Amino acid sequence: MSVIRQPGVLGRTTRRRVVGTTAALSAAICETVAVVLWFWLVVGSTATSTALAALGILFCGALLRAGLFEATVSSLGDFVHPRRLGAAVAWTTSWVVWLLVAEFVGGPVGVAVATAGLTILLVAQFTVERRVFRAGQVYDRQLVPSLTAVVPAVVLAAGAAALLVTTRTRFADWMLVSPPVSLEVTTIVIRIEAVHVGIAVFAICAFLAHQQRFRRLLSSDRCSF
């Protein structure tokens, strides 16, 4: 009954859900494109120039992602603001460390260790971002991990684990091929490899992680939205 008496509350809640979902989808697309392109270029080539180009793609994606987060929870500032650059560097470093650990340890153990390490790094990343970009809550002044950081970090790290599992273990050897479909001028064959499933799982996990994060932040009574 209280919601019916205050129609503005329902409208504000709906707007928050729309903004949160849109921001989560945008951040997930940005993160998926940046991480997958970087991962594919680094894994597929040993050239220094390719590695640097891949790192540049990852960093640009990190800047865009930080901008999306800042614009959603507060207000959009300068594109090269120090706090956004710092968040982008930390995010880029987290993914580089994740892959280095996986490569160094190797095998299923490497996947497990890298995933655990990435989870810790992401929790720290999300906690610091919430403080730096002033998400609007009183306890944001304390660098204490909360569910707003832990749950999305675990979900996103699980998606990263799917990438590693589908490219670094024995599960990467399978492939699904559809029967040939003949058209007038050509024949179409749909081929689904393990890495394609890994990319899809990562994209879904990225969306769910960001949706969970934005939902909790935007639902705060002190949020600027």
Automatic annotation (TrEMBL):
Top-level taxon of origin: Archaea
Stretches that traverse the bilayer: 21-41, 47-64, 108-128, 149-168, 188-209
UniProt keyword terms in alphabetical order: Membrane, Transmembrane, Transmembrane helix
Protein name (database record): Uncharacterized protein
